[in-house]
């Protein structure tokens, strides 16, 4: 299903000062990418490829990317209006205060709030986000007391509570057990089915191949592939970008791959 992109991104080259050499180092080359309503796009690439940097650029936290949601330039919007368009789940959030889980999730409603109290729409969004991520039972627990996986699901709930049309999620399943990983990926697919555009950083190539409509692969800050997983994640790319070989198969007509062994690129 391809339609008008809900999310369109045009980045400019992003450089960082190289402390050792004294010159500048390219973090991210200029690139274009889009995500349509209904799509789950996996953002892939090895450690240091530039995935988090790209998500931060799209979220307006680093560098200057041109970002459009539904054809509207985000640059012209206020901070809160922008926050209502893009929900961003960063790779790591430091939460050192013993704030109750429900209050953490309620932070997702800040872009919607004009007064002090929560409206019924706020409460409904918070409740739905907590149910979808199975954290309702944790509502009163201090966030500092949770396990890594529980915390990850609470932070996803906070992003979902925004009810933005676009979700940017940086490794949302990294700390989760297999059951919760599949639960979150099922949820991302459901959100896309409801019309959202989802851009998600993943390291698990098997899950990316199975759950994403498209993958965008970064290598050394450059976009090296963009398309259906079965087409992009071929043997050549896996060897060149990840230095691995995979074993492949078909289940119920759907291709799958399992990273198998390290190879020389
Ligand atoms: N502000 C910065 N200054 C200097 N270097 C930076 C800066 N931000 C990111 N980098 C470097 O840019 C590269 C890309 O980092 P980034 O976090 O985007 O990678 P990533 O693909 O998300 O990796 P990972 O899979 O390990 O999370 C890394 O080499 C990182 O050290």
From TrEMBL:
Which of UniProt's keywords are assigned here?
A: ATP-binding, Nucleotide-binding, Translocase, Transport
- SMART domains xref list: AAA
Q: Which domain of life is it from?
A: Bacteria
Molecular function (GO) terms for this protein are: ATP binding; ATP hydrolysis activity
In what residue span(s) does the ABC transporter domain sit? Answer: 9-245
- List the Pfam families hit by this protein, alphabetically: ABC_tran
Tagged with keyword Signal: no
Q: Which stretches are transmembrane?
A: none
Q: Which InterPro entries does the record cross-reference, listed alphabetically?
A: AAA+_ATPase (IPR003593), ABC_transporter-like_ATP-bd (IPR003439), ABC_transporter-like_CS (IPR017871), P-loop_NTPase (IPR027417)
Signal peptide positions are none
What functional role does this protein have? Part of the ABC transporter complex HmuTUV involved in hemin import. Responsible for energy coupling to the transport system.
Family according to the record: Belongs to the ABC transporter superfamily.
Q: What is this protein called?
A: Iron complex transport system ATP-binding protein
Q: Species lineage, top-down? A: Bacteria, Pseudomonadati, Pseudomonadota, Alphaproteobacteria, Rhodospirillales
């Amino acid at each position: 299903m391809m339609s008008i992109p809900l999310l369109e991104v045009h980045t400019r080259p992003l450089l960082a000062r190289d402390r050792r050499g004294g010159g500048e180092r390219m973090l991210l080359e200029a690139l274009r990418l889009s995500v349509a309503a209904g799509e789950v796009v996996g953002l892939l690439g090895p450690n240091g490829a530039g995935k988090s940097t790209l998500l931060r650029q799209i979220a307006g936290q680093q560098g200057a990317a041109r970002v459009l949601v539904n054809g509207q330039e985000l640059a012209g919007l206020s901070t809160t209006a922008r926050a209502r368009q893009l929900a961003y789940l960063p790779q790591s959030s430091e939460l050192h205060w013993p704030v109750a889980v429900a209050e953490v999730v309620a932070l997702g409603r800040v872009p919607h709030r004009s007064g002090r109290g929560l409206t019924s729409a706020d409460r409904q969004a918070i409740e739905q986000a907590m149910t979808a991520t199975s954290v309702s039972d944790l509502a009163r627990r201090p966030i500092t007391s949770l396990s890594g996986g529980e915390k990850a699901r609470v932070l996803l709930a906070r992003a979902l509570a925004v009810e933005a049309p676009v979700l940017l999620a940086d490794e949302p399943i990294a700390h989760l057990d297999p059951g919760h990983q599949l639960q979150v990926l099922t949820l991302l697919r459901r959100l896309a089915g409801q019309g959202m555009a989802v851009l998600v950083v993943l390291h698990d190539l098997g899950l990316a191949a199975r759950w994403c409509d498209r993958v965008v692969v970064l290598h050394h800050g450059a976009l090296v592939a963009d398309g259906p997983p079965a087409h992009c994640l071929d043997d050549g790319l896996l060897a060149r970008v990840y230095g691995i070989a995979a074993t492949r198969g078909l289940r119920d007509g759907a291709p799958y791959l399992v990273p198998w062994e390290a190879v020389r690129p």
